[in-house]
Design goal:
heterodimer, A: 184 residues, mainly alpha, 4 helices, B: 334 residues, 2 domains, two-stranded antiparallel ribbon, two-stranded antiparallel sheet, 5% strand, globular, ATP_synth_F0_asu (chain B), proton-transporting ATP synthase activity, rotational mechanism (chain B), ion transport (chain B)
Chain lengths: 184, 334
Amino acid sequence: MFLPSVLAASNLVKVQPGLIFWTLVTFILVAIFLKMKAWGPILSLVEEREKQISSSIESAKRERAEAEKLLADQKTAIAEARREAAEMMRRNTQEMEKFREELMAKSRKEAEELKLSARREIDEQKAKAIAEVRSMAVDLAMEVAGKLISERMDDSKQRALAEQFVQGLPLTGTSASGSVRRTA
Amino acid sequence: MRKAMVLFASLFAATAWAAGSEDDVPGYILHHVVDSPYLEFEVPLSTPIKALDFPKWHVPLKANGCAPRMTEHGEEIPGFTEGCLDLSLSKHAVMMWLAALLLIATLLIWGNRDKTKLVPRGAGANIIEMLVLFVRDELAIKNIGKEEGPRYVPFLLTAFFFILFMNMLGLVPGMATATGNLAVTAALSICTFVITQVAGIRAVGLGGYLKHLTGGVAPWLWPIMVPVEFLGLFTKPFALTMRLFANMLAGHIVLFFLLGLIFILGHPAVAAVSVPFAFAIYLLELFVAFVQAYVFTMLSALFIGMGVAMAHHHDDHGHAEAGPSHDHGKAHHV
């Protein structure tokens, strides 16, 4: 066989104990050095990052839930406020309506009263005026009558007559004066 | 599998052509993929290749010192039998150190970023973090579990990046692939092996660990089961060793061999075919550099996970053994 002879002739499969020794020494030194200077820092950094990422995700979730809760609270608060506002509005309108009605009633009543008192005043004034006109008509009639008959009559007698005459006059001013004129 | 066949084919070609060829292409290829006690480099515009010899460091293991055996070529062979531990540097040792320095420099530049910012900035920091997270999440935590996984992340990360950098360094012209050396891959597997056993003992205690070696069968089957289980302990790191070694070596041999075809066939026109092929293989090797680092790390994590999982299924032994067979199949595709 050629193969064993090749292997024997070459240094291919020769195992040098010295190289094993150096490899072990080198590997162990490199491993210790890298553990201190490279793997330790890198791995701790990576672990810290993983921790931070997971805690960030966790807190994000928590904050999201919190925000959702807040949002729901806010929504109910807004709905509540809206409802209250509507209620207030309704009550306000009602009150306004009531107030307006009250005001209207009051003013109507006042106007009525004013009208009544005005009428009373008018009536009073009218009665007074009528009385005045009557008395003036009596005087006038007497004067006219005196002048007509050119003699003085017994004052009281004449007066009674005139008054009797005036009593017969219709109550309204115009008809009174007309009748006065007619009588005259 | 395909890669292994190509490896054997190239080895066959190497023996076939070693005798006759003037340009000794196979010899050149073998010379470049195996370790050497010197570092070769070419100075541009000067023909002779410079070589830097490494000093010989022989550590005596016996009281009376170390006397290397001499071969007929005048080479010193300091073996264990002569009481020597040969700690001389070699090309691959230097390449491994270079890879280690590059790795440390890369990680210090891009890994050591602003501590106040939690997000990496820039391509370098992002790539490193992506790979780190990949090793942690996809390899360590998936195979070992959420509780025990993070403990082994630094080891897995170091294995992944160290192998990756050695693989990549081998693809730089003028450099060599340290992971294409059995001693290097064996040492890496030894680390995995030790950590795997420690993980198992940590999980179930020494008693549970030894009990696990019996496979949970009836005592009269122990004489069969214990050797099988004991061998099983070593087949895993052995597979790790061979897989990484063979993959890295084979890729480089294929690469060299495609270019060597130009000289073997002796016509410049061959370059029109072999250079595009070699380019394609080079791109494949870039991919393989990542894949092999991934496979080694993933299998290490898997073995550690099996050790850790001893605590969960003592009786359910078949389940624990289902893992590697599944992944051996996966590794063969690579």
